[in-house]
């Protein structure tokens, strides 16, 4: 295979949120790639030894309510029919032709990685393909199967069921958990010096990682019975999902690991960088390049908990997780048909400004790097006031609104600015600020005009090496890469990624500003 997933990307709980301004590890720190491989190895060994069966309850589960549980969405007239879901995978021999229709969110780079073909070979297959931006959806291609026998697995879940998308707008997590009345409704846990309820933990993981809370709850119930019933064994109180990794016990850490696996599968498939699955027995299997990002995410998650035969049964036979999900939460493809694609053809960023006041000079301290956590795209940038002392502290300067919008979340160093103003973080363009100090931070529910103050840069909310603000973009809940199919442009400066995370530049005509964590003069940008 042309590309293989590095083990170091798989599981990083040791970073509670983000490590910013950190292109290289500081002296004496833990090597993150090594830590990730050690964590993965521990999880795989423990899971392979224990490997409890999925905790699908034997008796029928109670139906909650129409509004909070089974959700039926009537698609609008003329909406496209959803793809067929499920069914046993179909073997495809090497050298055969794969029929593929481009999907919303496809890029030439993504197809090149998934089909293991050079971009120029793909360009020769379709006259409507292009090198930059999102490809038009609906282009029919016949692509050679270049990498040996392949299982065509078919679609399982739409993309909107994976990310914190419009599909979750009308899903009230706390009310659902309360009405379900299971163990989760009485559960509490100490997380980062806060006591959180089970529902608050699910909502926190969903909001921070941009993962659909409906899917998190469904997977928790499928593995442990926590949502509608009680834990099936004593070990499932500490390890409700069953990763069984030392120092990774408790609902919050296990659900964060779930979100991480979904994120790696989803965005890795989207970019063409994740092309195979590694199972708990260390065997590997190529991912079907014709599926959608949501299906790749689910396949990736299940591969971390099951051997290949069990994986196949859990996803592609009667009584599988997908059947369970549909029975308990309604038909996801109906929701998909009603909502449409997460990334529509022709998606473009609205005009936005640099995140600080006019006339001020700040340092561009971090080029494109992870938007949040492990596995997502390099969608975030870091800026720091040029006139600040080194180290961490609350700056006297203000980071400002890049565009008019409504603040829909303000907590734990984070601010989410909703540009469409509908009050939902799951819809439209949302700009995400991090490391914003609690002192003077704008409150949720506040409408801001462009250039209004958001808060003071700091190190709050996560790991950081110096005072700064981290800013990233989402569209319909999906993290958007900073140097990808939708250019990231602020006050006329376009982001250009470097060869590695945190490097890169801002370009405006003949002017170039280079990202430097030390705030060197080449990183200074004046608005």
State the end-to-end CA separation.
46 Å
Please indicate the count of domains: 3
Beta-strand fraction estimate: 15-25%
Strand element count: 25
The stretches of 5 or more residues where confidence is low (pLDDT under 50) are 1-18, 22-85
Radius of gyration: 23 Å
Q: On the 0-100 scale, what is the average pLDDT?
A: 84
Structural class assignment? alpha+beta
Largest sheet: 9 strands, antiparallel
Shape assignment = globular
Tally of alpha and pi helices: 12
Helical residues, percent? 10-25%
Question: Which keywords apply here?
Answer:
527 residues; alpha+beta; Membrane-bound Lytic Murein Transglycosylase D, Chain A; Glucose Permease (Domain IIA); nine-stranded antiparallel beta sheet; four-stranded antiparallel beta sheet; 20% strand; globular
Characterise this structure.
With 527 residues, the chain is α+β, with helices and mostly antiparallel strands. The protein has three domains: 1-87 and 154-333, no CATH class; 90-152, Membrane-bound Lytic Murein Transglycosylase D, Chain A, CATH 3.10.350; 361-526, Glucose Permease (Domain IIA). It contains twelve helices and 25 strands. The strands form eight sheets. Strands 10, 11, 13, 14, 15, 16, 19, 20 and 25 form a nine-stranded antiparallel sheet that branches. Strands 21-22-23-24 form a four-stranded antiparallel sheet, with no helix packed on it. A hairpin with a 7-residue loop joins strand 10 (361-370) and strand 11. The protein starts with 18 loop residues before the first strand and ends with a strand. Mean pLDDT is 84; it is low at 1-18 and 22-85.
